[in-house]
Amino acid sequence: MITIHASTIELNSKCKVETKKCKQKISSLDMLEHH
Q1: Highest taxon of the source (predicted)?
Q2: Contacts (Cβ under 8 Å, ≥6 apart) of 1
């Protein structure tokens, strides 16, 4: 779970530079975290 959280933060920082595709990946990871 720590690995997932770390990758979410990593994607989040990249997301500020990139586009909506990144946000979709983050929301997918968030769903995995909550479930």
Answers
A1: Eukaryota
A2: 33
CA–CA distance, 1 with 33 (Å, rounded to integer): 7
**Tell me: the pLDDT tens digits for 1-35?**
556 666 777 776 766 666 666 667 767 777 776 55
Q: What is the number of other CB atoms lying within 10 angstroms of the CB of residue 4?
A: 12
d(CA 2, CA 19): 25
Q: Where are the domains of the chain?
A: 2-34
pTM of the predicted protein model: 0.27
